[in-house]
Amino acid sequence: MSKTKQKYYVVWQGREPGIYLTWDECKAQVHGAEGARYKAFPTMDEARQAYEAGPPPIERKPKAIVNCQSSMVNDEIIQDAYAVDAACSGNPGMMEYRGVDVKSGIQLFHFGPIMATNNIGEFLAIVHALALQKQLGTAYPIYSDSRNALLWIKAHKCRTKLPLNDKTAKAHELIARAERWLDTNDYSEFKILKWHTDQWGEIPADFGRK
Questions:
Q1: For position 59, what pLDDT does the model report?
Q2: Residues in a beta bridge with 115
Q3: Model pTM?
Q4: What does the alpha-carbon distance between residue 58 and residue 184 come to, in Å, rounded to a whole number?
Q5: CA end-to-end span of the chain
Q6: Which residues contact residue 29 at a Cβ distance below 8 angstroms, ignoring those fewer than 6 apart?
Q7: In this structure, are residues 97 and 84 in contact, taking their beta carbons and an 8 Å threshold?
Q8: Count of Cβ atoms closer than 10 Å to residue 88 Cβ
Q9: Who's near 116: CB < 8 A, 6+ residues apart?
Q10: How far apart are CA 23 and CA 83, in angstroms?
């Protein structure tokens, strides 16, 4: 079995800027930190040079290729891909989302529960998958079975009607962060695709609670 290649994580803005040797160490510095700036590099020399040079300028970047067509599709499922899904008990209710590897079914990330809606969870899950892959240096396609979430990603805007109150404050905080990420990152190399449940069955990330 081949070993995972070492990556070096530069944190320009976070709880404690520096260079970290693992994603877990980097995540501890940037997860939930306002305005966090970070990136993975393949060698320590590149990481040091990047850290000393400072973060690259923030620019509004092109959107990803978002395919939300729901008509008959003859395409086969792309195995080297991410699949995301959300589950919500009530609407709104306690929501959680996750991402899995399509080929293996291995869970790649999980978040929640928080008070939100299913559509919000689907939207956040796609952005989470994009952000994670940007840090890992991969660009696998991302499947979602939510047409609303795909449209929201395309618009760079979560068009939820969820009221803001003490219970939903965390969801609105995450939405704002996700929209900011979409506006300030180049993810045009990614394909975000509609999962066709009617032809392929439940999406691999499904929580199985239907």
A1: 53
A2: 94
A3: 0.68
A4: 6
A5: 37
A6: 11, 14, 15, 16, 17, 18, 20, 36, 38
A7: yes
A8: 23
A9: 88, 92, 93, 95, 162, 168, 171
A10: 21
For the record, the structure tokens of 43 come out as 């060698």
pLDDT tens per residue across span 34-83: 777 888 899 999 989 988 888 876 554 455 556 654 433 446 899 999 99
35 closest CA partner among 17, 9, 53 = 17
Q: Which residues make Cβ contacts (< 8 Å) with residue 141, sequence separation at least 6? A: 78, 80, 81, 82, 190, 191, 192, 193
Number of C-alpha atoms within 13 angstroms, CB side, residue 190?
31
With tokens 């959107």, the residue in question is: 63
Which pLDDT tens digit goes with each residue over 69-124? 443 344 689 999 999 999 999 889 999 999 999 999 999 999 989 999 999 999 99
pLDDT digits (tens, 9 = 90+) for 131-185: 999 999 899 999 999 999 999 999 999 999 999 999 999 999 999 999 999 999 9
The pair of structure tokens assigned to 1 is 């079995």
